[in-house]
Amino acid sequence: MIADLRKRVERTPVAAFSIRMSAGHEYAVPTLGHVCLPLGGRSVVGSDDEGIVAVVPALHLSALI
After folding, report:
1. Residue 45 pLDDT > 90
2. Which pTM does this prediction carry?
3. Is 10 left (phi over 0), alpha (psi -120 to 50) or beta?
4. What is the rounded CA–CA span in Å between residue 50 and residue 46?
5. Which residues of 19-49 are buried (b: 16+ CB within 10 A; e: fewer)?
6. How many CA atoms lie within 13 A of 61 on its CB side?
7. How far apart are CA 48 and CA 13, in angstroms?
8. Of 27, 37, 34, the residue nearest 3 (C-alpha)
9. Residue 56 and residue 17: Cα distance in Å, rounded?
C-alpha cells in the first residue's frame, strides 16, 4: 500500500485523494503539502489546513480513494 501511496504522490498533475485506514477513518490529501512519506515506509505523516499533524502507521493503510 505504501508503494501505491508513493506513486500517487509522485503523479503529475497531482490530484486530491484520501487515505482510508483499517479502522475506517479517512485523511484528506488535497495537496502534496498535506502529506509526507518518511524514509523507511513505516509511517505516513499528514497535516490538515490548520497545521494539525497525524502520524499513522503504514501498516494500517487500507485504501487510497
Report:
1. yes
2. 0.85
3. alpha
4. 12
5. bbbeeeeebebeeeeebeeeeeeebbebeee
6. 24
7. 21
8. 37
9. 16
